[in-house]
Design a protein that fits this description.
Blueprint (H helix, E strand, L loop, with lengths): L1 H41 L2 H8 L1 H4 L12 H11 L3 E6 L7 E5 L8 E5 L6 E4 L3 H15 L4 H26 L7 H4 L8 H27 L5 H11 L27 H11 L4 E6 L7 E8 L8 E7 L5 E5 L6 H6 L2 H6 L4 H39 L8
Helix pairs in contact: 1-5, 1-6, 1-13, 2-5, 6-8, 8-13
């Protein structure tokens, strides 16, 4: 008797969640479709941009080629673009160097691609592809609306998205253990309604965990209270950057004033951080006693955490070394929110998983709406069949 009562209660809970899942999903379906579609498109934006603009991002590397002194590259950029604030040295020898020029008041500045073998400024990173992906980014973050309107719309839609993922998992759980295998596969031989239903359920189940991770990290950019609360839970200080970025305004004082050639600092950094990775060196200012360098892993399966090293500007002696793996777990998570959200956390491997999961998420509003339409048609047909026959006059 108790078991029967428990089953009845569970059925009522599932029916309530199913109805809520259905109607809330239908109500936010269009917004979630746009957010998921643009997220899918944006996943490999760097790789697509570099592929479409290979003449900028890649250079010929003849056998007798030698990389020019970094001072020559910086002077080439400064002569035509402005004073550099940093230079990125890629691990791939066929890749252009990236020199950032950030003027006073700018947060990110402009990135210029330089041939390390000729000091030629090939161009900047503002391409047709980057403009397209910026549209995808703005649609993803605030639907191309005013940010004060678009961000909360996307934010609350994301909250609903996380609820849909959790409620979908609850609804998916079969009542009988023998039904689990059936719920994990798609019956391609069935009619299209059954295939659509299986696609929604099975694919939603397989991608649910990653989609929940995307959702709860995506809220970081939608609500200040959520971001503050997340930092509070993790027990770390909110270090969100101001309008001028982490290095402050890049005015006349932030120019190439290193006491030693940059190659000496790089040699020490590479010996200390001895692994394959891209190295970025911030150009020290006049009053700065140290030189800051950072390095990130490259490869198919490589964590995105950044290692940082500070060197004495006059002697190139190590002042501090901050390795990502040496940080407490809470600090690692806090500094990786963006890479966790975008799938860059474990390099290309995790980005592929995210791309597939986000593509599935894009399909869920479509398959969900089709399920809803089919249920309405079925209900209408059933209601029509039970209507009492009219008595003859």
């Amino acid at each position: 008797m108790a078991k029967t009562k428990t089953n009845t209660t569970w059925k009522r809970i599932r029916k309530f969640l199913n109805d809520l899942h259905l109607w809330v999903g239908v109500g936010t379906g269009l917004i979630l479709f746009v957010v998921c579609f643009t997220g899918t498109a944006y996943t490999f934006h760097h790789e697509i941009d570099e592929w479409l603009n290979a003449d900028r991002y890649y250079v010929d590397t003849p056998g007798d080629a030698h990389v020019l002194p970094l001072a020559d590259l910086l002077e080439s950029v400064e002569a035509s673009k402005g004073k550099p604030s940093s230079i990125t040295i890629p691990h791939d020898p066929s890749h252009s160097y990236v020199v950032n020029v950030r003027k006073k008041g700018e947060r990110r500045g402009s990135n210029y691609l330089v041939n390390p073998y000729t000091a030629e400024v090939i161009g900047d990173t503002k391409t047709g592809a980057s403009a397209f992906f910026m549209v995808m980014f703005r649609l993803h973050r605030w639907l191309m609306l005013d940010t004060s309107i678009g961000r909360p719309i996307v934010g609350w839609s994301t909250v609903i998205f996380v609820f849909l993922c959790f409620s979908g998992l609850v609804i998916w759980v079969p009542q009988k253990a023998k039904s689990w295998r059936q719920g994990l596969k798609i019956k391609w031989s069935a009619n299209w309604k059954r295939v659509n239903h299986d696609l929604h359920n099975a694919l939603g189940f397989y991608s649910a965990i990653l989609l929940i991770i995307m959702g709860i990290t995506g809220l970081y950019w939608s609500f200040d209270w959520y971001r503050d609360g997340l930092y509070g839970i993790l027990g770390v200080e909110n270090t969100r950057r101001g309008p001028s970025g982490p290095d402050g305004d890049q005015g006349e004082k932030q120019r190439y004033e290193a006491t030693l050639p940059l190659e000496e600092y790089i040699s020490v950094a590479q010996a200390t951080l001895d692994y394959a990775g891209d190295l970025r060196i911030s150009i020290p200012g006049v009053s700065s006693p140290n030189v800051s360098l950072s390095k990130t892993n490259v490869g198919f399966f490589a964590y995105s955490g950044r290692d940082e090293i500070q060197l004495n500007k006059a002697t190139a002696e190590i002042v501090t070394v901050n390795r990502f793996t040496d940080k407490p777990v809470n600090e690692q998570i806090a500094s990786s929110i963006r890479s966790i959200h975008t799938g860059e956390i474990f390099g290309t491997f995790s980005k592929i998983l995210y791309f597939i999961s986000c593509l599935i998420a894009t399909s869920l509003p479509v398959t969900g709406v089709l399920i809803w339409i089919n249920k309405l048609k079925k209900k209408a047909k059933r209601d029509k069949s039970v209507q009492p026959l009219k008595q003859p006059a």
